[in-house]
Predict the structure.
Amino acid sequence: MNTKLKDIRDIDKNMKELTINEDDDTIWYEVNAEVINKYMQGKAFKNGEFNRLNDVYVSENVETLKHHPAGFNLEFKAKTNTIKLKAKLAGAAYMSHMTAVGTIGFSLYVKKGNKWYFVNSSKINKSEYEVDLLTNINNKEYTYRLYFPLYQALYELSLGVKKPGCLEFIKEDRETLLIYGTSISQGGCATRPGMDYGAILGRMKNLNVINLGFSGSCKIEQSMCGIINDIVKENNVKKIIFEVECNSPSYDHFKTRFSYLLDNLYNKENIEIYLISHFDEALPFVNNKIKKYRKGFREVQEEVAKKYNIHYIDGIKITKGIDCEGSVDGVHLTDLGFYEVAKKLAKII
């Protein structure tokens, strides 16, 4: 029997993409260079762009990835019954194992007391869009935090409120944590911005977290050492997490390049440094070659950490409690994996 199947969006209205009401009056606030430089959290350099690095060349891949605003977040106060968002990105979502919201979307949190609570995301998959991000809000002033896309370049962004509402960008001074790492640190594959471990950790510990996760491209180049030193100086960084194992092609590659970085790290005597190894995975259960390689890499990292008197964190130990349920593909973390990592790191740092 041939049955015509209905579209899920016609069955369940909550599965529909967000829309925008174009019939009302809106006051738009552009997130321009001045706003970026003055108010953006998670920003390493004041270059007035949605760009995580300065103009120093690292690699061909990083030249693309640095335009992904992973870790960026912007706080504002607003008194309005509707918050709108208008964005232009390099493209729509493009990965089979990561949601459109996590790849190209924005997530909005509201502050209650001293805690942040998630309220909504830009549930749409287009390179250019306008959406009603939050509607029917009480006629009171609230403080919000907006997290930015994890895996796509952002060109333009504006926030809108319905007249006679108002919006004011704000910024609170916080201690800065710098994370340098792989796709896992960039946020692959969180379902939405704000659920990568750096963002969760930032909310848990009230930190300004600078995300230097570069998917497949954390090669610990000498130029990255110079960039990290500039970030340490400019942002008074007191804590650094290095999550670099997955992109290091060999033990020697890691030892040589990471040792150079630590030898030349600015103000390292006054920085708490954490080196975290690969997280728990099931593949070594059935593949002895990988099991041996991972074990050897943990030993190499422990050796380097001991030599430089920095903190070594065994990634297997901090994710072991979720029985390898924390990834989407055996490597990249789900929200469960990210939350478990952040929860354990919050106790350690």
About this structure: The mean pLDDT is 95. The domain at 176-348 is CATH 3.40.50.1110 (Rossmann fold). The longest strand covers residues 154-162.
